[in-house]
Every structure is written in structure tokens, then in C-alpha cells.
Amino acid sequence: MSTEIYLDGNATTAVLPAAIDAALHAMGADFGNPSSSHGAGLKAKVLLDGARACARRLLGVGEGRLIFNSGATEGIQTAVLSALCAIRERRAAGQRVGSLLVYGATEHKAVPEALAHWNRLLGLDLLLYALPVDAGGRHDLDALRALAPEAALVCTMAANNETGVISDLDGIGAALAHSNTLWMVDCVQGLGKLALNLQATRIDYAPFSGHKLFAPKGIGMLYVRAGAPFTPLIMGGGQETGLRSGTENMAGIAALGAVLQALEEGNTFRSHAELEGFRARLAASLRRALPGIVFNAAFEHTLPTTLNFSVPGLASRELLDVFDAAAVRVSSGSACSAAKAAPSYVLQAMGLPDWRSSSAIRMSFGATIDSATIDDACARIERCGAALRSAGLLPDAKVPPAADGVVQLSDAGRHSWLVLDAASRAAAVIDAQPALQARIDALLHSGGYTLRASLRTDAADTIAPVRLGARLLLPCRVADATIYLLGRADAAQTTLAPAAVRHAFTGQAALAPLADLLGADSLICPASETQSAFCTSLRAEARAGQTAADDVNLDAAGLAAFLQSNPNVLLVDVREAYEHAASAGGPGGRAALNIPLSRLAQQIEAWQQSPSQPLVFFCRSGNRSAKAVHCLRRLGHSQCWHLVGGMALTSAAPILALAA
Ligand code: PLP
């Protein structure tokens, strides 16, 4: 089984061992409340003061305030609330305040959401204005200079979480030099990665987050410039000199303190030059593995720990899945739902074409990573490239062996079906959806197929039978719909007896009127998931609800025991071929048969003929394998199970590459 390589450091990081020790100490031996005046409290107070002093030195806080809180989202709220309360007071006192709340177009959502929320709540009615960025992701300083006289508050970030683009804070500061606007800089992705000397800047507020730099989640800091307006977000017992009440998160503060101390001592984290070297190695492997790759932000202006890229012809879902199969954890550079990626607003703001902003991948690593892990990651990236190539998904792909039979492609719960006849290289598609057209074309092209017919189950006109080698696709009108029956037939045959129908593509048609046309076990392939989770049969539908639902779930521990007592089990990987090829086998590294879910309808017939063969399906997260097992059970195969939670829950501990 391959060990996980975590390359998603901009999302969160593992906690540094020294930070874990410090947190355990603060929860165990030195658990006191820093507000208590007895010995236990005093010890906690020393710890609290030590962590703050270290942070103050590192960030160059000068006379400013540094408040511990729960993280950057809280820090952003506090900064925005403070600024807006001050703006409201100034306006009420008749002072001139600008009318704009300006924020960088690529800010983390916490910023515009907080601005909109507090602007509404405080009844300020200021205008939110997204400051454009250039093609390199950097703020448009000419636009900012023009806006500065009207800006009441400006929010920018030190470095972008998706692209790693580093902002020109000196340039922004200069653009704001003659404006009396307040200025917040979200420093989350800059902590430990960029040299900060806050007192030398005109930044008023700077939120930080512990979990992006090897401290636990739930601890953060807010810098407030000396003299900058402040309004507490949380009132109560007066902790943090009344600026942020609530008993301090001492475990978090101790851990963050340990990280900051390590940063100050300089022995734990790789130098900028080393990190640049690591990024160059990853980029070289990516270029070799994924022809046509484009990096979405130039390396000279980005954090050396972040790479953001897109690959022509590959969706982010496909790239995420193949990396995940190789146990390389990366994220899509955009909000990604199960099937589709919403385009990244960050990349859109940079003016990148749609295909790049909706298919981007972010690879980001922590500054504790070592050279051996980078080597391992490079090897796996190249394995992913080879897997995609062997599945015909890259432009220089080897031609994969032509698939034969029925293939299901799905988009948002709606199915398109392909019938492929490998011997004659003839194909037909039923209910092709526009969203799936590119995949359909690629599949036909890579297998050298000629499309004989593109059929629709909602077609009103009569269509002639379609011959695909030894297969016959027979249209039939049923009520207002057209369904297509598929079976083997010799050249002279123009009809199919019910028992000879292997598959029936039924669109939205009701099943009852089909009884005269289909055999009891002909596989009914519908047009959407709402009609049947995958495919069904008349016999399965007649039986539905008559038997109690069996327990088909195996967890990782249950699977190990199951495999021991059933040595003839067939493990079936229902992930795509490229995911299977990129992975190091099935659960526990065991060999597995690869039947992608899209090919299940073709394989079912063979499994129905060996009903006593135990089958265990697995996939990445357990979703696809659940569909497979429920489909087979419904069709009457009683000897099948699936791995709940998928491979994700069976992986070994990640390579953290942390200094001990
Ligand atoms: N700002 C940026 C740039 C971030 O990357 C994040 C985290 O994703 C946040 C703010 C929010 O930080 P937290 O998780 O500490 O609330």
C-alpha cells in the first residue's frame, strides 16, 4: 500500500511534532487558566506571554497590538467590524469618509462576505468594489490609485491561497499613501513564507491563522496597528486586555508558540531557495507527465510552495481522481462538486480562459517537506501521467484497447449510453448530452470507432434498426417514447425475441408496457438516476420491496476479516481505468479486477452467470462502489458487498515529512 503524500498545504497542514508536544503540555502538566492568580495560572500566563512575545518579534509588531483568537475568519470579522464602526463614527461626526469598501478580486471569500455582512448589519450602505487584478494575479495599482480617495476601507491579501501569487504590498501601500482609508491585509498564506515587518507598513489590520503553518485548527492572531480603531467582536471576561474575551485556547497558543519559535530559530523549515528547487522538480515532472500543461501563475511572483495548473482536455475531477489514486493529495483550484468544477473566481479574475479556470489543480506543500518526499511525489506524478496516457486521455496517448459493449456516461444524474462493437468498430450513442459530448468524442476517437447513429429516446419519428457488427439496435415505439433494444442477431435478422434482448435503453419510459418486449433479465438502462440507480430488469422490479435490504457494507476492518474467511473473493475496482492504473492495487495492496462503473452494465451479464462468486466493490470514497453493489443486489446477485468510505479510509498514515 502506498503512503499518502500530502500536497495540499494551502488548505491546512499537519501539526508540527514540537507543537503537538507543546499543546499536550498545555493540556496536561500546565493546564492552568492564565487569568488565575495562583501558581498554575501564573505558569499558563508565562506560556501565553512567551508565545505572544515571539509572535511580536517575528511579525515586527512594534507598538501595535497582537491578539490571539480562533483563526483568520474571526480576525477578518474583527478587523472589518473595527474599521466599519470607525467609519460610521467618523461619518456621524461629519468627517469625510469614502463611499467604497474595496477588496481584491481574488480575496478569500471570508473578506467580501464579512464586508457585505457588517456593512448591512451596521446600516452603512457603502458600496463593495472588487479591485481588479492583472493577468498575473497582482492588484491593478492604477485602479487602486484612482479609487483611493473614495475608499473607506481597502482589503488585500499578502499571498493568494489558490495561486500563491504574492501581492505587491509596498506598491499597494504607496497607492494608499495619500488616502485616509483603513487597510486590512489578510496575511494567512504569508505567515512563515514572507518576511513581514508590520510596523514599517501602513497596514492597519493583519489576520493570521495557525493551521496554515503547522499549528492546530482553531488558533489565530490579529495584528492591529498602534492607533488603528478597534471594536471587540466578543465581549465577556476581559481576556486579551478586553480586546477578545473568552478563556484563551492555551493548547492552540502553546502549539502556535512552538511553531513560531521554530520559525525564529530557523532550523525546522526549508529555505526559500530549497523550496524553489523542490517546486522546480515538481514542475519538471508535471511537464513530463502531462503534455500541454499550463501553469496559471508565473513562478517569479508566487510562493515557492504553490503550483496551480491546468491540462488541456482534462477536467479537474479527472486529475484529482488520478492523483488521489496514487495517494497524492492535491485540491482543485476551484470549488468542486462531485461531478463538476465551478470555475475558480480567482483565475477568472485573472482573465484566464474558462477551460483553465474550471479545470485547475492546486498543488501546495509545507516548508517542512524533504527531498525524498519530493522524489516520491515526482515518481507518482509520472505514474499518473502514464495512467492517463494508457487510458487514452492525453494527446500523445497510446491507443488503449478498444472497449466493447455498453458504456454508461453520466452528468448530474442523467445518463448517456454508448454501444460499441469492437469487431466492426461501429458505435451508436443513445441520449447524448451536450455536457458529455467531449468525453463521448474522445472515447470513440481513442478506440477508432465510427459513429453509426446518435439516437434519442424522446425522438418522435420512426428510426430504422441500426446494425453494429453482430449486434442489432432495434427502435420500438412504446406509448409516446422510443426505446432501443440491443441484442446479438445475424445479418438477416430484423427483430429480437424478448429473451434475446440483453440491454434496453428506455429513456424516461414507464416499465410496465415493456413486458412484451423484454426478457425478465434483460438489463433496463434508463436515462436518469431517478428512474433506477444504475440499471434494472423486469424481474428485479417485480421483486423490489419484497425482501429486506441486506447489509452490503464492509468497513476496512470488516473487509480484512471477510477476506480471510472468503479467500476466493473477487475484489472489483469500479474506479476509472486511469485511477486503477495509477493506484498501487486495491485495499491492503491486493490485486483487483478493474471494471469502471461506466462498464458495469456490460459486465453484469457475466456475473449473473456465476451467482455464487463473492464480489467486493471498492472505489475512492465509497460512492461508486455503493451504486455497483446496490445495482447487483437488486438484480439478484446475493454475494456482493462494498467497501464503505472507499480507499480513502484504508490509506496508510500520510508522509508528513516533519522535523522531529
Ligand atoms: N484567508 C485565506 C487567504 C485563507 O487561505 C484562509 C483559509 O482557507 C482564510 C482566510 C480563513 O482562515 P481560517 O481557516 O483560519 O478561518
Offer a few descriptive terms.
single chain, 660 residues, alpha/beta, Aspartate Aminotransferase, domain 2, Aspartate Aminotransferase, domain 1, Metallo-beta-lactamase, Chain A, 4 domains, 31% helix, 19% strand, elongated, binds pyridoxal-5'-phosphate, cysteine desulfurase activity, transferase, metal ion binding, PyrdxlP-dep_Trfase, metal-binding
Architecture overview:
The strands form seven sheets. The chain has a five-stranded mixed β-sheet, with no helix packed on it. Strands 23-27-26-24-25 form a five-stranded parallel β-sheet. The chain is elongated and about 90 Å long. Helix content is 31%, strand content 19%. The chain is built from 18 helices and 28 strands. With 660 residues, it is α/β, with parallel strands linked by helices. Helix 1 packs antiparallel against helix 7 (250-265), helix 3 runs parallel beside helix 4 (110-121) and helix 8 (272-289) packs parallel to helix 12 (371-390). The protein folds into four domains: 29-261, Type I PLP-dependent aspartate aminotransferase-like (Major domain) (Aspartate Aminotransferase, domain 2); 271-390, Aspartate Aminotransferase, domain 1 (Alpha-Beta Complex), CATH 3.90.1150; 405-542, 4-Layer Sandwich (Metallo-beta-lactamase, Chain A), CATH 3.60.15.10; 553-659, Rhodanese-like domain (Oxidized Rhodanese, domain 1, 3-Layer(aba) Sandwich). The longest helix is centred in the first third of the chain and has 21 residues, at 39-59. Pyridoxal-5'-phosphate (PLP) binds at residues 71-73, 108, 110, 157, 161, 186, 188-189, 209, 220.
